[in-house]
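Thread: Newbie trying to understand structure tokens

Hi all, I'm a second-year student working on a class project, and my supervisor (Dr. K.) asked me to get a predicted structure for one chain before our next meeting. I've only ever worked with sequences, so writing a 3D structure as a token string is new to me. If someone could post the tokens and maybe explain what I'm looking at, I'd be very grateful. Here's the chain:
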Amino acid sequence: ASHGPEPEFTSHHVLGLLNLGMRVANARVLIYYPRRAPVGPYRLTVAPRRLRRVRLNDLIFPEAIRLERPYGLAVDSDEPLVAQLGGQHSLAKAAARTWTLAFAAA
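---
Reply by user tm_fold:
Sure, no problem. This is what the structure looks like when written as tokens:
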């Protein structure tokens, strides 16, 4: 349960993919859990010289990501991308945002 209106205050994780190149990037995301096989790939495209932000809550094919469990992810792409993971946690009355440092993924 979140404190605040939906969907703005729904707890979520966000994957940011930045394509600085001149061609469309076709990314594949795999989700890893501690006690089961990886899930995916989740396929995403990123336009040239654009940022694409995707709520991981919205990735449901091949299955919804289990955000209540610990997980990690790996991004693979046919074009160089910069990937960044962030989130909003709104279970308490004061919402908190977190972000990781960005790194290049090829």
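A couple of things are worth pointing out once you decode it. Residues 26 and 78 are 6 Å apart (CA to CA). The longest strand covers residues 36-46. Feel free to ask follow-ups in this thread.
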